[in-house]
Design a protein that fits this description.
- By secondary structure, the protein is mainly β.
- It has one domain: Methylamine Dehydrogenase, Chain H (7 Propeller).
- A hairpin with a 5-residue loop joins strand 20 and strand 21.
- About 5% of the residues have low confidence.
Length: about 400
C-alpha cells in the first residue's frame, strides 16, 4: 500500500437502490467526533492527516494535535485507533522535540504492514534557538498498540513527501529516496536532487517509480536511474505516477493552480504513448486539489482533478480514449479510492460515489464546517470510511464516519 501527501487523500459509501442517473443521499452507519485532550485543554484542535485499516478491520488515524496557547503552545502528532463499530480503542500523542531543539510535528503519510505495525513519515519545523530554525523529516514505526518500535532521521532541510511498503521494505521519497527494512535498518539511499518526488511506487521486481514534482522517474531495484521524463511546469509539481497492469507507467500532474491536469502514459522504457489534458471543472480562485489517477480491473484509468469549487472525474481506456468525462460542484477532491471499480471521493465535506459509467450515484455531506485541506478515505470490504477535521465547539476535531457499500 502506498501513501503520498497531500497531498496525501478519500472515498464514500452506501446502501441504496440505484435509479438511472439519480443521486441517492446516504446516511452514515455511525459518526465519531474526537478532539485529542480537549477535555482538559479546550484550546486544542486536531488535524486529520491520514488513516489506514488494519488486519482486524480497525481504523488507525494519524493526526496533528495543536494547542493554540502562546504560553503553553503544543504542536505534536497523535495516533488514534477505532474498532469497526466506532469505539475508540486508544489514543496517544507524541512529541519529537529533543534537548537540541523544539519541533512542530505533523504526519505526512502513514502505511501499515501485515503485522499491523504502523510507519509514519513525520515532517518537522525545528526551533533550534531564538535565531535559528530548520525543517526535517523523521520515519517512525509503531506497533499495533502505539508503542514506538524505531525511528530514523531523514535529513535536515530535505523535504520528504511520500511513503510506501513493498517487498517487505519501507520506501520514503522526496528530494531523495531512502529504503529500510521493516526493523528500521537502512538499506539504500538514492539521490535525485533534480526531481522532488510527490509519490513513490514499487513493483514486484523492486523497480522504484517516482511521480509528481513535474516529472516521472524510474529506477532499478539497485537504485540505478533508468530514465526520467519532464512533464509539467515545476511551479505546478503536484501529481503522482503508477505502474499499470500491462507494464506501462502512467503519470498525472497539475497543469496550473486552478485544478487543470495532464495524464501521460509511458512504456516501461520511457517512450510516451499518449497524453491527455483536462481543464479545471470550474473556474476558481480557491485552493486546487492534487490530481489523482487509478487503474481499474479492466485496465481503464480513472482521473480526478479539482479545486475549491468542484471536481472533474474522467475514465480513459488504455489507449487514452476518453470513455466518459463528468464534473460536479460538490467539493474539492482530497482523497479517492476504487472499490469494485467504482470510485469514492471525499473533500470539502462532500463524500461521493461514481459508478463504472460515471454516474454520481450516491453522496453524503458532513453536517458542519470542515477544514478544506483535510479529507481521507479508507475501505475495508463493504465498509467505507471518510475522515476530516470538522468544526466542534469553536475549534476543529477529528470527524470519522462509516458507510456501508451495497
Amino acid at each position: 500500500m502506498s501513501r503520498y501527501t497531500p497531498f496525501k487523500w478519500p472515498a464514500l459509501f452506501f446502501a441504496f437502490v440505484m435509479l438511472a442517473a439519480c443521486t441517492a443521499t446516504i446516511n452514515p452507519e455511525w459518526v465519531s467526533i474526537y478532539n485529542h485532550k480537549a477535555d482538559t485543554q479546550p484550546d486544542r484542535l486536531s488535524w486529520f492527516d491520514d488513516m489506514q485499516v488494519d488486519s482486524y478491520g480497525n481504523l488507525v488515524i494519524a493526526a496533528t494535535s495543536i494547542r493554540a496557547n502562546l504560553q503553553e503552545r503544543v504542536h505534536d502528532f497523535a495516533l488514534v485507533k477505532y474498532s469497526p463499530s466506532g469505539q475508540r480503542l486508544w489514543a496517544r500523542d507524541y512529541d519529537l522535540s529533543t534537548g537540541a531543539y523544539e519541533s512542530d510535528d505533523s504526519p505526512a503519510a502513514m502505511v501499515l504492514d501485515s503485522q499491523d505495525n504502523a510507519y509514519l513519515l513525520v515532517n518537522q519545523f525545528r526551533r533550534e534557538g531564538e535565531q535559528s530554525s530548520s525543517e526535517g523529516s523523521v520515519l517512525i514505526s509503531f506497533d499495533s498498540q502505539g508503542n514506538e518500535r524505531w525511528r530514523q532521521l531523514l535529513g535536515r532541510n530535505q523535504p520528504m513527501n511520500a511513503l510506501t511498503i513493498a517487498n517487505d521494505k519501507v520506501y520514503v521519497s522526496g528530494v531523495k529516496t531512502s529504503v529500510f527494512d521493516l526493523n528500521g535498518t537502512p538499506l539504500q539511499t538514492i539521490e535525485h536532487p533534480n526531481h522532488t518526488a510527490q509519490s513513490v511506487a514499487v513493483n514486484i521486481n523492486g523497480q522504484i517509480l517516482l511521480g509528481g514534482g513535474s516529472a516521472i522517474s524510474l529506477y532499478s531495484a539497485n537504485g540505478d536511474r533508468l530514465w526520467t521524463q519532464q512533464q509539467a511546469d515545476p511551479d505546478y509539481g503536484f501529481g503522482q505516477a503508477i505502474f499499470s497492469m500491462g507494464g506501462d507507467l502512467v503519470a498525472i500532474n497539475a497543469l496550473q493552480d486552478n485544478g487543470a491536469a495532464q495524464v501521460i502514459r509511458y512504456s516501461s522504457q520511457g517512450q510516451q504513448r499518449w497524453s491527455r489534458n483536462f481543464s479545471a471543472a470550474y473556474q476558481s480562485y480557491g485552493l486546487p486539489g492534487e490530481p489523482m489517477v487509478f487503474e481499474d480491473s479492466r485496465g481503464d484509468l480513472l482521473v480526478t482533478a479539482s479545486n475549491a469549487d468542484g471536481h472533474r472525474v474522467a475514465k480513459l481506456d488504455s489507449s487514452g480514449r476518453v470513455v466518459w468525462n463528468t464534473r460536479s460542484n460538490k467539493g474539492i477532491v482530497r482523497d479517492a479510492a476504487l472499490n469494485n471499480d467504482e470510485l469514492f471521493v471525499v473533500g470539502g465535506g462532500y463524500n461521493g460515489k461514481y459508478d463504472r459509467n460515471g454516474n454520481r450515484v450516491g453522496e453524503s455531506k458532513v453536517g458542519r464546517n470542515v477544514q478544506i485541506t483535510t479529507g481521507s478515505v479508507a475501505i475495508d470490504g463493504d465498509r467505507l470510511y471518510a475522515g476530516y477535521s470538522a468544526e466542534q465547539n469553536g475549534t476543529f476535531a477529528l470527524h470519522l464516519s462509516q458507510y456501508i457499500d451495497q
